[in-house]
Amino acid sequence: MMTTQPLIAPSAVTALRDALTSHGYTRDAIVTRVGIEAAQGLNRYDPTLTLQLLGEDDPLAVLIQLFMCGRTVPLDRAEPAVVPLLESAGEGTVRAAVHLHPYENWWAISDFPRFLRPAPQDRRAEAVVPIGLDASLLRRATLTHHVGSALDLGTGGGVQALHLSAQADKVTATDLSPRAARFAATTAALNGLDWEILQGDMAQPVAGRRFDLVVSNPPYAVGPGTVHSVHRDSGRPGDALCAELAGAAPELLTEGGYLQFRSNWVHRAGEDWRERLAGWIPRGAGLDAWIVQRSVTGVVPYVDHWLELAGGEEALGQREAWLRWFETQKVEAVGVGTVVVRRSGHQQSVVRVEEMSSEAGELTGAQVAGWFGRRDWLRAHDPLRTRFLPGRGLSLWQQADQRGGTGWELTQQVLKVPGDGLNWSDRISPLAVALLGGVGREATLGEQLARIAEAEGAHADRLAEVALPEVARLVERGALVPVEGAEGGAEGAEAGVEEGGAEGVADRG
């Protein structure tokens, strides 16, 4: 399969790069020129303050007006090297045909945001959207370790592939849209990067190949399956695209490889959404998964949000059909979050589907690495033979209710774990409270449980069997931190912690 070619010829790419560099069309130079406040406005695609401050029509000012502000300029003021990316605006003026954004240390090519180019002729179903919040959140959550091969599935203008280039020996990018593929090819060429860019639907262009890291910000909008905008609509009904992507993990990933993608999913009446999402992960395929819901949106604001982004005539008639489909499918809300799948090779998989608290920060790559690292520790070690320390910043909240005239009755205990920045909040058992109260001393977990069993007149082995699943959860959260070198061996860890196959699918954070 042939890789995709850029929008302009190689010689034109070289001339354009030289012109952008010589005139200081970079993030830092633009901040110096217009100030941090105006530059932040440009990052939000609001050029108002920048246009007030630019001043003279020197080459840098003209580049900013054209490629970041979306304005027209006289043709004779445009740098000859940028002309291949311009189009006539009439009466001797030109405008940029693409949005050329100085992004970190790179340049990124996309279409202009709809509100900067609102005319009907600028509304394309195959529009390549500029860098947005979801792209930033996906990058924030992406692992950053070095890999041999990486895939940006549904690359759009190539922003995720830019970041992957800093950590992968070889980057492959795919997109269903030929236009998006050419934009990504231009982004790569302009930054002097060598990507393999293939056209096709989802994983089809790379069938039979495996990658160490796969990232995707796919067209995940939940709806009836009609396509009005290719960056939003997948052509699959509901959240089927994301289920399909998760299900492709066994064929896409090398041993130890990761798949990470942004996702939306339905909350359907009478159905446990966590159980259904856990079903996205193929059983018996040696996959571990962590699926994190960050927010939930009602169906009306969900539809209105997407249609507001589309704007104008394109939205007419869609709202009623979209909401009617939600009603017939008994969809009550839509969840938003991140899916991480790892090909661990273990047949007894760990699939955790959970919801973040409202106080939680956005997921980071370090937090993803930490979670899977702690799961690896649990596979390789026996918690009963380990001495633990408490995690940073733990706090215990207790609730007691008045029971008539009989006094107070303890009804729940909630452990808050802020240490990793996700501000976990979990109900825990009295046994877990007792264990946490005893950590940091010389006893191993097994010795602690033996003492509790003796004091309560309970059977020590039975107590350990009850405690281990909750201990595993506390280790995942970072509430229990193994003391380096304190454990005496790994035998029995998988039987004790992983018994029962996929666990914790209905847990909430």
TrEMBL record:
Keyword Cytoplasm part of the UniProt annotation: no
Domain DUF7059 per the UniProt entry, residue ranges: 23-89
PROSITE patterns: N6_MTASE (PS00092)
InterPro entries: DNA_methylase_N6_adenine_CS, DUF7059, DUF7782, Euk-Arch_PrmC-MTase, SAM-dependent_MTases_sf, Small_mtfrase_dom
GO BP of this protein: methylation
Span of domain Methyltransferase small: 143-230
GO molecular function: methyltransferase activity
Disordered as annotated region, ranges: 485-509
Keyword Cytoplasm applies: no
SUPFAM superfamilies recorded: S-adenosyl-L-methionine-dependent methyltransferases
Residue ranges of every copy of the DUF7782 domain listed in the record: 370-482
Keywords: Methyltransferase, S-adenosyl-L-methionine, Transferase
Family to which the UniProt record says this protein belongs: Belongs to the eukaryotic/archaeal PrmC-related family.
Protein name according to UniProt: Methyltransferase
Species per Swiss-Prot/TrEMBL record: Streptomyces solicavernae
